[in-house]
Amino acid sequence: MRMKKALATLLVAASTVATLAACGSGGSQSEEQKPESISFWHYDKETSAQTMAWKEAAADFTKKTGVKVKFEVKSFAQIAQNSSQFLNSDQAPDIMESNRGNGSAGMLSSMGLLSDLGPYVKKYGWDKKVTKADSSMARYNDKGVMDGDTWYGAPNYAEYQRVYYNKDLFAKHNIKEPTTLAEFEEACQKFKDAGVTPIAADAGEFGVLWLWWQLVSTKADKGLIQDWQMYKHPVNWKDPALSYATETLNDWLNKGYISRNATGLKAEDTTTSFIKGDYPIYQTGTWNQGRFVEQIKNFDWDASILPGSKFAQGCTGNLLTIPEKSKHKELAAQLIDIVLSKKEQNGIAKHGGIPVAADNNSIDNPKNKAMAEEYAKFSKKNALSYYPDYPAANLTDAMPAALQELVNGTKNPDQTLNAIKDAYTSGVKDMDVKD
């Protein structure tokens, strides 16, 4: 989710990129001479689980092939905003980390700037290692819409939304950790009665939006998710799941389960507040799990998906792609295959990430093991709802803005849902992905 800010820029550049792409023919693919190194561009932090695993994989790759891996760290903005230009030039790297989704990897693939990885999927059996749900963000059709037939990226880790509980606060107030949505609301009311605001949520960024979509997933069926994310059919805006989530969120605001002050909060505000022990409940992405393991020292905590959810809000993380202009595609594919090996996938788990092809029994930390197993349960059932702003570039800003007005009371639930509908409809139309 935090990678979506550049989608509008990509859309603006689309006509320019299409012209540039028409001028190129895919670059040299010669592997006759083994290079000294291949280039790998990424923007993840050096301390992230996936980056550490990539570097471990690179060491194994060098031992096997004699070829070094030259890692180059770029900012997310550099890759997201300028990828169309360098991908169509001789400066293209051999491997590039790319944001997933219709407006990112999907758009670049539809412009002919990313390699079709189908031959490598078949050669190395990646489709046997990665579940269908986890590969949905790696596969696109000719319009750049996810869950298509052609692999343009390799998923190698995952992320999703969980509800984190401060177990000490629950014990202090003699409140049971919830296992159903009814128990969740009952716990919130008990905390409120005790003078404690139960849920940490920011409306200044994406926290309230993610909570809204998780509430949708307690009532939605697979059809609504596919219509929303993949344009299978027009979204039924009268679907009870959408009205239920919006009305429930408003009810929680009215009851004080979420503070109206959330309108001015951002993710770092709520994350640090939870770490300090200010809130008993916090829904956030699993990218914060490693931080919680390291930084929470003054209380015990637990986590699980929101009770009653039929879908996990999340998906595989950023993709490893091979640009069409890569000069060393075969070597790039060999490195990706090592990243997807059991050893390196177990390494992602060891470093606190969620692997997509690991042996979860090998994970030593019980909290990280529980996280990986919970995600695997939903992935194997093909029960991922992704994130609600994926269908169109404008939704990254428009949906949080609509829900922010619900939080501060300037829009009621019907008006909020209508604002989301208007933004979704216009955004999907601008994406020009429907026949």
Automatic annotation (TrEMBL):
InterPro entries, alphabetized: Bact_solute-bd_prot1 (IPR050490), SBP (IPR006059)
Subcellular location, principal: other
Gene3D superfamilies: Periplasmic binding protein-like II
Cell compartment(s), UniProt: Cell envelope
Alphabetized SUPFAM superfamilies for the sequence: Periplasmic binding protein-like II (SSF53850)
Alphabetic keyword roster: Signal, Transport
The keyword Protease belongs to this UniProt entry's keyword annotation: no
GO cellular component, one term: cell envelope
Family: Belongs to the bacterial solute-binding protein 1 family.
Protein name according to UniProt: Carbohydrate ABC transporter substrate-binding protein
Provenance organism: Bifidobacterium apousia
